[in-house]
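pasting for the record
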Amino acid sequence: RRAGLEAYNPALYAFDAYSAFLRAFPPERGAILALGLNPGPFGMAQTGIPFTDCRTAARDLGLPLEIPGRAPPALARRLKKPDGRWRGTYERSSLVMYRFLKLAWGSVGKAHRNWWVGNPCPLLFLDPEAWNVTPADPRLKRLSLMADLRLDAFERYHAAIAPRAVVCLGADVAAVVGPLADRLSGPGRVIRYPHPARAVPDAWARGLKAELESRRLL
């Protein structure tokens, strides 16, 4: 409210979908820990699963989710145009991410044994026009506890996973979490890489795979 934004927490309303994901693809200690920004409106905000929209959940994970997934009615209304049509029906980041997972490990099942995504900020933020707002936005950066909460979340992820490497996706995550990741993971174990939101899928996937291979992390 202090930032003039609406906030939604998929960890609460999409708990059942995320729990089904964890049962099917439990994280393993020593996996690579990837750090995203926060839930996307047509991805995690509907499925509870980072970088996963409803289509990807059904097609690649076998989870029976259809648009709007687990989004509550108030959020579903905000994600529609005045004529009732959806503003979007897929999450671009999801397409790019799953392109990488299949390229790097061949199958989604094997990928999720080696790759685990955590969003240090678990909330979706929408402005009055229903546009997505990320923690990189100045309105959220002005909140004094935001950075502290993101760092605390990362420390919890790190303790649970004991990752062999950390991938910071995007400049904002790299700036806020990167220094702590360096201290916890050690030299050469933290990769700063562009966020997939506006990336060319093949180029992004091949570039990240090459980066991991160069450090002998695959």
